[in-house]
Specification:
The chain is α/β, with parallel strands linked by helices and 304 residues long. A five-stranded parallel β-sheet has the order 2-3-1-4-5, sandwiched between helices. A four-stranded parallel β-sheet has the order 7-8-6-9, with helices on one face. The longest helix is centred in the last third of the chain and has 21 residues. It is elongated, with a radius of gyration of 26 Å. 34% of the residues are buried.
């Protein structure tokens, strides 16, 4: 095994622990949900290396440390289908610790009956099945990974978890609250330039009087106090805002449970300069008051 120097941290660092590479090693039974775990780790900011030969774990950890940035949070997914896989996972983890790393090992498991149903549903053979039965492949893999399971820091039994529940479990373990929170973009636009293709909700503000027809307001935008006060002071504007703010707040937890991380609420008027801009700013403020993560954006502002 190649020799690497132990990671050196700046002497003037306030908290050296904040500079260390956050390593997660994911292994487990085929069909247990390793791919879902890998995607969930990506969602919470990990750089994921899939199907990594165990012999390269130390090399990968060293490269991640040297690369810094996003690679400082690295997850390595080990698969028994790799010919370089070894049963000595404990030894590989010890080698990482000897070089100053602190890897966390996640083992993904499931009941044999569940694994059989999963393989049969996708009509795949088990990677260790050979000429035998599906159950033989599962038994062989379970035996191969027995020590790895015993050495794991976290065991996730996916027998009774669906994809979304498994993803949430990983996020609870490795992601903070801010990572899991739904991020809402409130986007103003002009209908004459077309609908935003990524809009989840489309709100139409054209029922409000258009400041374009007010000479003193025509050349100003919804970001300015005069136009904003005019738009928000119109009959129906308050009810429009409170209704949609309540709707978004009511549906946000459901979107989060279903794994959605970004929600786009598009607010349109004719040209995207006056009404939609003022409504967008106010709706964003109300969503923030409701403790939702929201920010405003103005797609067509400046096009006129």
């Amino acid at each position: 095994m190649p020799e690497f120097p132990q990671p050196q941290f700046p002497e003037d660092a306030v908290d050296p622990d904040e500079l260390t590479t956050d390593l997660v090693v994911v292994t487990g039974l085929s069909g247990g949900g390793r791919s879902t775990v890998a995607r969930a780790l990506e969602n919470v900011g990990f750089y994921v290396v899939d199907n990594l030969p165990q012999a390269l774990m130390l090399d990968m950890a060293q490269l991640a440390f040297q690369a810094g940035g996003a690679a400082r949070r690295t997850a390595m997914v080990l698969d028994v289908r790799s010919r370089a896989f070894s049963t000595d996972l404990a030894g590989a983890v010890r080698a990482l610790k000897d070089r100053g790393f602190s890897p966390r090992v996640v083992f993904v498991d499931a009941d044999d009956e569940v694994l059989i149903r999963r393989f049969e549903s996708v009509r795949r053979s088990h990677p260790l099945q050979g000429d035998g039965r599906l159950a033989d492949g599962i038994a062989a893999e379970r035996k191969l990974l027995e020590e790895a399971r015993d050495q794991a820091d976290v065991i996730i039994d996916t027998s009774h978890l669906n994809v979304n529940q498994l993803r949430r479990r990983v996020e609870e373990l490795f992601g903070g609250e801010d990572v899991r929170k739904l991020r809402i973009t409130v986007l103003s636009f002009g209908f004459k330039y077309g609908l935003p293709p990524d809009a989840d909700y489309v709100l139409d503000a054209r029922f409000l009087p258009n400041p374009f027809w007010v000479p003193d307001l025509r050349d100003h935008t919804g970001l300015e106090e005069g136009v904003s006060s005019y738009v928000l002071g119109q009959e129906g504007a308050h009810d429009f805002l409170s209704t949609y703010a309540g709707l978004i707040a009511a549906t946000a937890p459901g979107f989060e449970r279903e794994g959605k991380r970004y929600l786009t609420v598009a607010v349109g008027c004719t040209g995207g300069k006056h009404r939609s801009v003022a409504i967008t700013e106010e709706l964003t403020a109300q969503l923030r008051d409701m403790r939702l993560s929201a920010h405003s954006s103005h797609r067509d502002l400046g096009r006129e």
